[in-house]
Design brief:
Elements: H1 2-5, H2 12-30, H3 37-54, H4 76-102, H5 109-126, H6 130-148, H7 155-186, H8 191-200, E1 202-203, E2 206-207, H9 210-227, H10 236-243, H11 246-270, H12 284-304, H13 309-331, H14 341-368, H15 384-387, H16 389-403, H17 409-424, H18 427-455, H19 471-489, H20 492-505, H21 525-532
Antiparallel strand pairs: 1-2
Helix pairs in contact: 2-3, 2-5, 3-4, 3-5, 4-5, 4-11, 4-14, 4-19, 4-20, 5-6, 5-11, 6-7, 6-11, 7-9, 7-10, 9-11, 10-13, 11-13, 11-14, 12-13, 12-18, 13-14, 13-17, 13-18, 14-16, 14-17, 14-19, 14-20, 16-18, 16-19, 17-18, 17-19
């Protein structure tokens, strides 16, 4: 593919999605009947994921300053994130194609917002400069704010969007202030220049101001912790998840979290990965361990007392953010000055497993409720699994995967993260024990869903949820359920993808790559001349 497009090949996923987004804007503006726009968006997003997959074995050639100017990266970490985010966003569009039509909310701007927000997320995971990072993050966030407020006449939707917007604005200001401090300390905005300044202690204008740099690093961590829903920066999450239409909630749970986790990996290992800043007993890994611990506890304990299923899944997503932070903290145990690549691989695999598991769980919740009979609380799920097994079975698989039950994708995601934390030793061993205990707590509210699905009956006079009939929703459930089970039964191929991304990020050769065939030796010039004669 590189031979066809040259240096532009690595930009192809962004160009494809941007072109599709422009086309969708025109279609939505001039065509009143846009019922098929959801399918078109899903196909475009799925096609973009395939384009990124096709670029996997291509050499990294994006070095021309005339194209990107050093603001964006072109590596396997970005391509893997593309696959997760575009796949998750495409499935969310399929779910929206059934949900919005069923509930008389069909408007083309939903799919346009999803496509352009995904484009912002794709640029975000490629950012190698503070300016590109901030612009891409805001492009992603503005679209998501609008998605939360999509149900215009709903007070809960307006409340969730307002909380998310106001708190998100504060978080963006904190992040921007941290970036300014980093620029003041290192005289650089590019990641490579900042990393070199922290490594050598020198900038182009004199010695590095370490205290200013550490304060900037802390503020950047706070800003990104808000986006990943880490405690205590999580207060927007339950209200935004509950108020948004469920396909938008699905998009937020998978795309926003995936993009933020990849950015944390790229920034904190690429810029702050020196032994001074990433030590096992001091530096940002200690702060990440603290965030992980309180996020695990608060996320799981708060989910126990929820009666609304979407709020329960919101707190569940907070708890999963804690697991991801455990893996990031474990990966910071430096090995000869390099990040622990196997642990980063476990974090990336967890991210893939979390994406498809969440789509399956939220998609099943969408399928349960038709117009006027939407499932909101646990009681609304009573007996649905027995009356309608086609909904109960995927709901069960999705919930078991989120719980980490074998043989689903979530089991290996949690297993490899916990194994990495135990292998790192020290305080991370206790953090792994806490994660196991909180997983046991989480099993209670996950299994509670199954109890209501199969072992409860609706109370007399209570409204009975009726599943909707939508081919789009069924297709999304089949696709996400397939990947949940495939990643659980045959996880090696997906782990190797994650390893390929993590080894390239660390600047190491991929041990899973096929060895290149040796090139034929060229004949000496004298022999060539003789043959010509």
């Amino acid at each position: 593919m590189t031979s066809l497009f040259g240096d532009w090949a690595a930009l192809l996923p962004l160009l494809v999605l941007a072109g599709a987004g422009m086309a969708m804007l025109f279609v939505d503006a001039f065509v009143k009947e846009n019922a098929q726009l959801g399918l078109f968006a899903a196909l475009i997003l799925g096609g973009t994921a395939l384009v990124s997959c096709g670029l996997w074995d291509e050499p990294v050639t994006m070095t021309s300053p005339a194209i990107l100017g050093g603001y964006l990266a072109a590596d396997r970490l970005a391509l893997l994130a593309d696959m997760a985010m575009c796949g998750g966003a495409g499935l969310a569009c399929l779910l929206a194609g059934g949900y919005l039509r069923e509930h008389k909310l069909e408007r083309g701007e939903f799919y346009v917002l999803v496509v352009w927000s995904t484009l912002g997320a794709m640029a975000l995971v490629r950012a190698t400069d503070l300016l590109a990072l901030f612009v891409s993050l805001e492009a992603l966030s503005l679209g998501v704010y609008c998605l939360v407020a999509f149900r215009r006449h709903s007070p809960k939707s307006a409340e969730g969007a307002m909380k998310y917007f106001l708190l998100g604005s504060f978080a963006s200001a904190i992040l921007l202030f941290g970036m300014a401090l980093l620029y003041g300390a290192t005289v650089h905005t590019d990641f490579a220049g900042m990393a070199e300044a922290f490594r050598t202690g020198e900038t182009g204008d004199g010695p590095l101001d370490l205290r200013l740099g550490i304060l900037g690093m802390a503020l950047v961590l706070i800003g990104l912790a808000f986006k990943v829903s880490a405690v205590p920066f999580h207060m927007w999450t339950p209200d935004a998840y509950e108020g948004a239409v469920t396909p938008a909630t699905t998009f937020m749970a998978v795309v926003v979290k995936a993009a933020t986790v990849v950015v944390i990996v790229r920034v904190f290992f690429g810029v702050f990965g020196t032994e001074m800043l990433a030590g096992a007993t001091s530096g940002w890994p200690v702060a990440v361990m603290g965030l992980a611990a309180i996020t695990l506890v608060v996320g799981n304990v708060a989910a126990l007392v929820q009666k609304n299923v979407k709020r329960m899944l919101a707190y569940s997503s907070i708890a999963h953010a804690g697991f991801l932070l455990v893996g990031i903290a474990a990966a910071a145990q430096l090995d000869d000055g390099r990040l622990t690549t196997e642990t980063v691989s476990s974090v990336l695999f967890y991210l893939l497993a979390y994406t498809v598991s969440n789509v399956l769980a939220f998609g099943s919740l969408i399928a349960v409720g038709s117009r006027g009979k939407e499932a909101v609380t646990y009681e609304d799920l009573a007996g649905v699994g027995r009356r309608h097994p086609w909904v109960g079975v995927p709901f069960t698989i999705g919930v078991l995967s989120l719980m980490g039950f074998p043989p689903t994708a979530g089991f290996f995601g949690k297993y490899w993260v916990l194994e990495a934390a135990v292998s790192a030793g020290g305080p991370l061993t206790y953090l792994a024990i806490l994660a196991v205990l909180m997983s046991a707590v989480g099993a209670y509210y996950y299994l509670k869903v199954l109890v209501f699905l199969f072992m409860k009956q609706p109370e007399a006079g209570a409204p009975v949820a009726e599943p909707m009939r939508s081919g789009y929703v069924v297709a999304a459930l089949i696709l996400s359920g397939y990947f949940v089970m495939r990643m659980g039964l045959a996880p090696t191929a997906y782990l190797e993808l994650a390893q390929g991304a993590s080894y390239q990020l660390a600047g190491l050769p991929d041990p899973n790559a096929e060895p290149a065939e040796p090139a034929e030796a060229e004949a000496p010039p004298t022999e060539v001349a003789a043959a010509a004669e």
